[in-house]
UniProtKB/TrEMBL annotation:
Any one annotated GO CC term: maltose transport complex
Keyword field: Cell inner membrane, Cell membrane, Membrane, Sugar transport, Transmembrane, Transmembrane helix, Transport
SUPFAM superfamilies assigned: MalF N-terminal region-like, MetI-like
Subunit architecture: The complex is composed of two ATP-binding proteins (MalK), two transmembrane proteins (MalG and MalF) and a solute-binding protein (MalE).
Name of the featured protein: Maltose/maltodextrin transport system permease protein
Source organism superkingdom: Bacteria
Membrane topology field: Multi-pass membrane protein
Domain ABC transmembrane type-1: 293-516
Example GO molecular function: ABC-type maltose transporter activity
Length: 524
């Protein structure tokens, strides 16, 4: 005998099957809606010419439909969000960066060729010798524009024009004008009224019967605005002002005139390995790149070494049994870790000020010296290491304190029996026991400082600059800040070159990470 549901009078197993069916249809409907949304994004990006984004969402939508549409792939549904996130936020940006590195993508080459051509065709110029003096006439509520050519001849045809009433064009826009034999009846407005109406007149476009547009060119003048370029059947453009012919240079992505001068904006084109060749073969780029590359490894390595040394020594002192007030010292030593890094960096920037900073005032009072912390390359790098050691030692302190707790006390007692001292205990017992579990954390700290963008940007900004470099490069720049300056702070914003450097950085870091993991015998 079935147990029935009190509210519906249905058998319990039947009620469960209906609920399961509803859940299944709801989940399928949600998946279908998500797939349709992704396909809409594919179409939208394709229409805008962004084929890489269209391909990304096409792959994402297809994989979503396959994984959630086939029952035998049910176990993969749980890992699909993680894989999709890795694909969207890790793999795709990496591939997109690599793709940009093979192009001339920059601030001068952003738009597609069609949009560049349309932008040239939309350009206009003010025709010379065809200006019109104008006066405003008012009769009751209505106001007219009366225009009279400055010369006897005009390229428009009529030398006198009158507009429709301005009351029909309160906020500017287009207004038709017609040939006139004489000024309209009414009161002529003075200069004060013209100035009061100036903003509306500046937005006004007067269209003659021939289709010529007239715009305000002064407090008393309107002039025809003519299209500057016209398109030829072979794809070139002709400058209507002087007849100059602009031909598309699809190898470099620019329109060029007869003298070979490039006109901006341009469009992105594939340049092959040119950006990588600039990094490796161009002396003006290769020299700063190699100097910054070496300094990046030195900075990351010395930071890890100094922070580890300071953290290990302080952790060892805090383990000293005869030391009183350990809790107070531990709290004070960890405080730099609790303060946001950007606040500490800005405070240090003021303290290292060459003219008014506290550090130079103390050094001058004690030793009579005032180091040039921000203008001398060696002193600037020293300052970075000092500040980064201060910011990083609490992390190493916490790690060493935890690892020192795991060292058996019996080993120290046996060492004392054999006559071992503090140095013997440190190099024969403590360091060998903690260095193996500490190695992966040291590698992570090295990777973090390898890309320590915040410290460089806030403290030195990469300065002092490297003289003779064709790209913005500084003696304190790391590779990550150097790439950022090329992409966003350089006048040309050379994204292609920055992407090539970023790709080289990725390959170097990946190789060094694999090497470090193998040397530290960490299974990948």
């Amino acid at each position: 005998m079935f147990t029935t549901n009190a509210s519906r009078g249905l058998p319990r197993h039947r009620s469960r099957s209906l609920a399961e069916r509803y859940r299944r249809w709801i989940s399928r409907a949600l998946v279908a809606a998500l797939v349709v949304s992704l396909l809409w994004l594919v179409v939208a990006f394709h229409l805008r010419g962004q084929w890489m984004f269209a391909l990304l969402f096409l792959v994402l939508g297809a994989s979503l439909a396959v994984v959630f549409g086939r029952r035998e792939l049910m176990s993969h549904r749980y890992v699909f969000p993680a894989l999709a996130g890795m694909g969207v936020f890790v793999i795709f940006p990496l591939l997109y960066t690599v793709g940009i590195s093979f192009s001339n993508y920059s601030s001068s080459n952003l738009l597609s060729e069609e949009r560049v051509r349309a932008q040239f065709l939309e350009r206009t110029y003010q025709a010379e010798g065809s200006a019109f003096d104008f006066r405003l006439y008012r009769e009751g509520e209505r106001v007219w524009l009366y225009l009279e050519a400055q010369g006897e001849e005009t390229s428009i045809g009529a030398s006198r024009l009158i507009s429709e009433p301005l009351v029909d064009s309160e906020s500017g826009g287009s207004l038709a004008v017609h040939p006139a034999q004489s000024p309209p009846a009414g009161e002529v407005l003075g200069m004060r009224e013209v100035i009061a109406e100036r903003e509306r007149l500046q937005r006004l476009v007067l269209t003659t019967p021939e289709g010529v547009e007239l715009r305000m060119a002064g407090l008393r003048h309107f002039a025809p605005i003519l299209p500057r370029y016209t398109e030829n059947p072979d794809g070139s453009l002709t400058d209507l002002r002087d007849g100059t012919r602009l031909t598309p240079d699809r190898e470099h992505g620019f329109f060029v005139d007869g003298e070979g001068e490039r006109l901006t904006p341009g469009w992105p084109v594939a340049v092959g390995l040119d950006n990588y060749a600039r990094v490796l073969l161009d002396p003006d780029v290769r020299g700063p790149f190699l100097a910054i590359f070496v300094w990046t490894f030195v900075f990351a390595g010395l930071t890890v070494l100094f922070t580890l040394a300071v953290g290990f020594v302080l952790a060892s002192l805090l383990q000293w049994e005869q030391l009183r007030g350990k809790a107070v010292y531990r709290t004070l030593l960890i405080l730099p870790y609790a303060v946001p890094a950007f606040i500490s960096i800005l405070i240090f920037k003021g303290m290292f000020n060459q003219s008014y900073g506290e550090i130079n005032l103390i050094l001058e009072g004690l030793f009579g010296i005032r180091p040039n912390w921000f203008t001398d390359p060696a002193m600037a790098r020293t300052m970075l290491l000092i500040v980064n050691t201060w910011l990083g030692y609490p992390y190493m302190l916490l790690l060493c304190m935890g690892l020192l707790q795991s060292v058996p006390r019996d080993l120290y007692e046996a060492s004392a029996v054999d006559g071992g001292g503090p140095l013997t205990n440190m190099f024969r017992i403590t360091l060998p026991l903690i260095i193996k579990p500490l190695t992966p954390l040291l590698i992570a700290a090295f990777a973090f400082n390898f890309n320590n963008f915040v410290l460089i940007t806030l403290l030195t900004g990469g300065s002092p600059d490297i003289l003779g470099a064709s790209t913005p490069a500084g003696t304190t720049d790391l590779l990550v800040s150097y790439t950022y300056r090329i992409a966003f702070q350089d006048a040309g914003q050379d994204f292609g070159l920055a992407a090539a450097i970023a790709t080289l950085i990725f390959l170097l870091v990946m190789g060094l990470s694999l090497l470090n993991l193998r040397l530290s015998r960490v299974e990948v």
